[in-house]
Amino acid sequence: MNNILWTGGWDSTFRVLSLVILQNKEVQPYYIIDPGRASNEVELMTMEKIRKEVVRKFPNTKGLIKKTIVVNMESIPKNKVISQKFQKLKESSFMGSQYDWLARYSEAKGISSLELSIHQDDKATFFVRQNVAKVVKADDEYYKLRDDLYNTGYDIFKYYHFPLLDFSKKDMEKIAKANNFDSIMEMTWFCFNPTWRKTPCGYCNPCKYTREEGLGRRVPSKFMGMYNRVENAFYYRIKRLFRKMSI
Questions:
Q1: pTM > 0.90: yes or no
Q2: Is 162 helix (H, G, I), strand (E, B) or coil?
C-alpha cells in the first residue's frame, strides 16, 4: 500500500492515478486541513469527484483508493526539535510551513514512507534534490533522504518518498494522455484562493507556477487574475463577517 499526501492537485493526483490505473496498486491518501487555507473545501470536493470518475472510467480500480485520512493541522502535536530544524532550513531559502507540520504529523504517527509529489520544477527541489538517493525496485522508483543525512537538520525529510522528482508537469501530461486518463487530470485543482464561482483565481502562487510550468491553459489570464483579486477581497471579507456573526 502506498501512502500519499493527496491534495487533488496535478502532481499528487498523477501519482494516485498512475498507481491505481497503471499498476493496480492500493493507495492510502492523506489530507491535512489547513484552517488558514481557502481552498480546503474545493480540494476535498475535487478529490471526491476524481474518485468517482476513476471508477467510472476504469472499473477495475474500484476499492484501490482507500478512504482518505483527513487531519486538522491544529491537532498535530508540537515538536520543538522538528520545528527548530525547519526554521533553520527556512533561513537559507523559502520553504512552506507544511514541511514543519507534515514532519510533526509523520513523527507522531510513526510514518516513514509518506509520498510527497514534489516534481522536477517544484520550488522545494532546492532542499530535496541534492539530499536524496534513488531507490529502484521491481515495480517502483522513488527518492528518499540519504542515509548519511539522518540526525542532521535535513532529517525532517526522512519521513518521505519522492516518486516524481524526475518528472515535469508536461511529462505527466504526456503519460496521462498515452494511458487515457488525461481527462481526469483536467479535473485537478491547484489554486489557493478559489473565487466564489469555485474557479481558479489566477493570481496566487500555485496559479502562477501552473502558468510557468506549461499548463497556462488551466489558469485565468493575468487580466482576469487582477479582477479576481479585487472580487475575492470583497468575497472573503463578507465570508469572514458571516462566520463571526454565526459564532
A1: no
A2: strand
